[in-house]
Amino acid sequence: MRYHSLVVDSESLPGNIEITAWSADDEQVMALAFRDRPWHGVQFHPESVGTEYGKELLANFLEMAKPGHRPSGPLFPAGGKEKGGSPPARKIPFRELPWADPEAVFVRNFGEAPASFWLDGPGWGATCMGRAESVFNLRENPLQSFQAWHGRLGLTADRQTPWSGYRGGPVGQFDYEMHRHMLKDPIPSPSEGSRGQTELLGRWMIPEGFLAFDRAGRRAFAAWENQAPPMWLQKIMDAWNPSPPIPETGAGLPPFSKWSPRLPREKYIGRVRALQKDIAAGESYEACLTHAFSAESEADPLSVYRRLRRKNPAPYAAYFAFPDVKILSASPELFLELLRDGILRSRPIKGTRPRGRKPGEDAALREELANHPKELAENRMIVDLTRHDFSRVCALGSVRASSLFEIEEHPAVFQMVSEVQGRLDPELDFPDVFRACFPGGSMTGAPKERTMECLSAQENGLRGIFSGALGYFTGGDSFRLSMVIRTLENRGGAWRIGCGGAVLAESDPDAEWEEACLKARSVIDAGG
To answer: How deeply is 212 buried, as exposed, middle or buried, from its count of CB atoms within 10 A (0-12, 13-18, 19+)?
Structure first.
């Protein structure tokens, strides 16, 4: 005869708790662990130590509770292939709802949440939004910390849904400075820090539920991780209101003329010339010099983002709210994507021109970008660098440039875009890919590591969120990350936007300053 001090209904557990032990005879829950924090619990009676397996029971629990322990098996098996330690396949529960305007739904239900996300642009697949109860911040050993945290989440590989893109899982961002924790010989940071960027290297959340909007089919869905939706999602479904968008309110951003550059014009031009000396000395072929503009404003971040998405829609537009920062992104660039069939993709951007005010001027600017030798050289170098990065993690012979020098039209600018694809080696996983490819070559230059050293000597402060990566991991084997460019950051009344451009031997330093300003101004004006 045996009694249990505690009985747990295994079907009622929230998504951030997993069962780590059952009783052999009556299948009662004997041990639990949080997926998102190092908390473990076991149902243990003192007299159990005297039983046949008492010593083994204690040894197993102590091993599980060691710092840094994570379930066995690699993170994100490629191509959906199950490996040792992978959780069992499980389809995510969802409910279809009447179509509603995504913007109105976000404003009503998530606008005040301290941790929320809105994957808005069409490059993400379906428009998805949700909230989380906590945020996982990356500090020391950020990639290893992220890998261990993700491993404890126990995400399933089988997540078939009627919508494309995000199907549940971690949502967040990696700072550019994560590269210092992944290289064999870390590159020193610029001497001047700014806005306390040394504190965090990334922010991630794991929502227990979310909403998905299939724009093409005008279908809306509520989805969740556990047997039942979280209470806040149930309330949204019960009060579902497909009413029209809520009018924008509040002031916009100050005009571009009111923003202060971290590097004034003459200093920026001087840094361009210094990098050209590095190029002449054979240290680099191409270097992406960056700086930032900042301003003080009490403008509401969500209201600014609503203006931004309307005036400057972008493929990887997104709004992320974390307790310490709001991120308003109008990024046009895909940094990395791993598809469910194991195909790895990147769409680097190099080459920018403003849009014309008249049709004839617009066409001329597009044609000039498409045929400009410097822009073609910039783009080709980054394509070659991306192919090189992919070759370190992809199957032999699978890496190729699937498109070259395409001109994309955006409301304020033209962009030259290419695409590189490869098939991920089935024995490798996300940490291998990230180490090989991060930071994205379009925001460093080539050769990558030596060029980053040259840039660190010239850039006056940390990049932080800018030129890092932002996006999601979904299921057990796929992810999609944008390049963090054309992106505003808000911390209370402080606003910031990073910008820059590629420097070549034949670059005109004055033109490089103007291009950097154009990129920042296009976002600031749209948010004003």
So the answer is: buried
